Amino acid sequence: MSLKAVVEGVGGYLPDRVVTNDELAARVDTSDEWITERTGIRQRHVAAEGQRTSDLATEAGRRAMDHAGVGPDDIDLVIIATATPDLTFPATAAITQAKLGITAGAAFDIQAVCTGFVYALSIAEKFLVSGQHKRALVIGAETFSRILDWEDRGTCVLFGDGAGAFVVSAMDEDEANGRGILSSYLRCDGRLTELLYVDGGVSATGTIGHLRMQGNKVFKEAVNKISEAMEGAAAAAGIDPTTVDWFVPHQANQRIINGVAKKLDLRDDQVISTIAMHGNTSAASIPLAFNEAVKDGKFKRGDLIMLEGMGGGLTWGAALLRY
Ligand code: UT7
Q1: Segment 144-198, tens digit of pLDDT
Q2: Most buried pick, 52, 184, 247, 250, via CB within 10 A?
Q3: What is the CATH number of the domain that holds 211?
Q4: Active site at which residues (predicted)?
């Protein structure tokens, strides 16, 4: 009997503090009009002083476990996708595991920036269908506010903090009844590092550094790479990408989301967009958007859902699942 990796529960957490475009316009040479027109972003959440990535991850994880109806003893794998860990080590997943009272199995972080959640979900699926682990907590969690150059209007207006989580369980095919992660498609081209990176780090500078991005060059890569990933994930599952029920994209820019949706013939009402309220929360953006759609009652069990991400590396990828 083969196993499937089924999403049983989802959760999200956003810090209380909301920063509006007008507030940013008071600090750097920008305007609500420019940010809204060029990106679709109206506001973003920012973590409180002392609030760490693991705090955001813990809350999102707890909510996903509640939604799935499982407790800490039911989880034996914690994977956190983050580019903004609490500490250099141990992994934010280890810290979060302890905060959630989980003691069984493995916990580790993965780093693929804005594609991180798609990478993490794909890794979890492999661990679960192999039978090595039974139930995973997969979290995307970020405090990008800590790596932004608040003087750089080209980047500081784009990002926000938050966390989103999935509980993913190994199920026999019969029990899964068609549900589960059907395929994933992951890519990286490290030659494009200079388009989006942080100019500091442990072995390079001994500092945290700031996010640097050649936004228009990343933009030019985005639609093609994301479309390629979605077509790749659909082909791997033997599915026509135009037949998906829902599309949950990484929330970087509404114009990118619209461009991809158009290329794949998806209607606006199939696309989950939270960018106006969340900004770009990097690895957290997909599970946060997914969670909003679940809370809004949009997704029904059995719906076919495409996720995609693209970010620093450059990395890009997509995953297809039946919810
Ligand atoms: O999540 C990881 C992946 N990241 C992405 O997918 C981001 C992809 N890139 C983008 O979303 C867009 O490129 C941005 C939103 C970052 C920028 O939009 P753009 O339409 O590509 O603008 P641009 O960078 O070509 O800049 C156009 C103008 C420039 O001024 P000049 O040189 O034409 O005078 C910029 O200096 O807009 C200026 N500008 C701003 N003006 C007001 C850049 N940032 C701002 C700002 N407010 N915040």
Answers
A1: 999 999 999 999 999 999 999 999 999 999 999 999 999 999 999 999 999 999 9
A2: 250
A3: 3.40.47.10
A4: 114, 250, 280
Residues spanned by the domain of 263: 180-322
Residue 203 has a pLDDT of 97
Among the options 21, 45, 114, 253, which is catalytic? 114
What's the pTM? 0.98
Count of domains observed in the chain: 2
Pair of tokens at residue 166: 């999935």
- Among 219, 224, 225, 308, name the best residue to mutate to test ligand 1's pocket (greatest count of ligand atoms within 8 A of Cβ): 219
Angle at 267 between CA 68 and CA 308, to 5 degrees: 50
CA nearest to 133, candidates 91, 78, 175: 78
At 171, list the tokens: 């199920």
DSSP 18-78: EEEHHHHHTTSS--HHHHHHHH---EEEEPPTT--HHHHHHHHHHHHHHHHT--GGG--EE
